[in-house]
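Per your request, structure below.
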């Protein structure tokens, strides 16, 4: 059974940093691209960053140069290092993987950036 568990969210001042983690189980990690999404209150869920199984990355324009996605295949864990945080980064952050045509989501972790 595929499970995704996020951690690392919290409250931080603008300009600060946080590191999110997404621990996976179910044997799918090494073979699949994975993503971070976020959803702010009253807004649609949006793609933040993607990392392929080989480590290639892509970012939303709004986070380029500030966020870094990475993965540790030995720990079956994905990370999102978030620097220079802005109030507009406030959202619930979710990790995601699509495996055999099924979308799997974690429970989300809240990130709140105060001005």
């Amino acid at each position: 059974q595929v499970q995704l568990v996020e951690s690392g969210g919290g409250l931080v001042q603008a300009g600060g940093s946080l590191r999110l983690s997404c621990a996976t189980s179910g044997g799918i990690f090494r073979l699949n691209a994975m993503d971070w999404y976020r959803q702010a209150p009253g807004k649609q869920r949006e793609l933040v960053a993607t990392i392929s199984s080989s480590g290639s990355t892509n970012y939303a324009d709004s986070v380029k140069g500030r966020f870094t996605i990475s993965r540790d295949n030995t720990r079956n864990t994905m990370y999102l290092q978030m620097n220079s945080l802005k109030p507009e980064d406030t959202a619930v952050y979710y990790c995601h993987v699509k495996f055999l045509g099924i979308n799997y989501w974690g429970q989300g972790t809240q990130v709140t950036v105060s001005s």
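The chain has a mean pLDDT of 95.

Regards,
D.
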